[in-house]
Each structure stands twice: as C-alpha cells, then as structure tokens.
Amino acid sequence: MKTDNILEMRGISKSFPGVKALQGINFTVRKGEVHCLAGANGAGKSTLMKILSGAYQADSGEIWIDGQKVHLRNPIDALKAGIGTIYQELSIVPKLTAAENIFLNNYPQKGLIVDWRKISQLSRDIFAGIGIKNIDVDRPVETLTIGHQQLVELVKVLVQKAKIVIMDEPSATLSAEEFNVLKGVINPHSAPLDIITNVFLGH
Q1: Are strands 164-168 and 5-16 parallel, antiparallel or unpaired?
Q2: Could you confirm whether the keyword RNA-binding appears in this record (predicted)?
Q3: pLDDT in tens, 71-119
Q4: Is pTM beyond 0.85 here?
Q5: Distance, CA of 79 to CA of 21 (rounded, Å)
Q6: How far is Cα 171 from Cα 174, in angstroms, rounded to an integer?
C-alpha cells in the first residue's frame, strides 16, 4: 500500500519488572520529516527508539515501514528494514581507519581483493559532499576527535542506505563547527545526501 508515512508505530507498549515504560504509544513520521523526542529521564524516549532499532521487543503493538508491517527481532532486522541507529556509545572499531569503519562488512572489491584505495576515495568523496574536508579517512578513528568519530558513524549509517536514521543526543559531543555540519546533513531541504527521515533523542 502506497503511503507518505515512512514510519508508523501503533499501540506500542513495553514493561520492565515494576515499571510500565510505554503504554499504547502511537508515533507516525512522514517521508523527509525530522523529529526530536524530548522529555525527562525515564519518559520512555530511549525505550521507544530501542524498540524501533530492534534492541528491545515491544510487549504489544505494530511497526510499519513504508506501508509494510515489519517484525524487528534484533538490530540486524532493523537495518535490513532501512533503520540505522547512532547511539552515544559509538559502534565504530577504534583500531580501524575511518574509511574501513564506514565500509565495514561492505568493502568494494576487485575480484576477490578488497579495493582499499577505492574505500579511501569513496570516503573522502562522501565527507566532501557533506562539507567536511578535514577528516583524514586513513587514520584510525581512535585518533580522531569524538565529534569526528560521530560523523564517521553517521556516514557509515548512510552508506548502509538507511531510510530512517535514529540519533541519540547527536549534538552532545560536537563542536560548534561540527554541529553546523550536522545541521546541514539532517536538514531535509538542504541535505546534500539523500537522507529520508531523521528521528532524534534529546533531554
């Protein structure tokens, strides 16, 4: 069924021992929209997004992506459904370079050989496309600033062709310059990359 809604969460409920975190939550996002979930600690923001990212299972309710009902049993299912998540605790591999992290498990190859030069060039091109030219993609990410590491994580999610990008307090570790870059990337009216939808968590 064709729909303008990229995401529909219907009647989502989730309880933990002694705590009812979510009860009958409905959340709808149209294609191209940017949403921010804000509220006090314990309001259920992270729980809702962890259900969407496949990290938690809802006790009841449904999730629809692009008009199709999906069952997100784990983060792999979520990624296959086009949902990318960037947590404050980044999932990049510290000893690998920025380029290697971006294309991890998706390395371009020449026959059976990984094309490392192409990986580096593609990474530079992607960063240049979002206005970043001062990241050395051939350096281990552990040597980059925390802000640059987060931008590496963002580009990694985009390379995986995520339709929906969830970011947990994305500006918390960014400098003013990095924050301005992030705003340009997520703005649906000016983004140089084809990001369809963004959902943010904040306090």
Answers
A1: unpaired
A2: no
A3: 999 999 998 999 988 877 778 899 999 999 999 877 766 767 878 888 8
A4: no
A5: 24
A6: 5
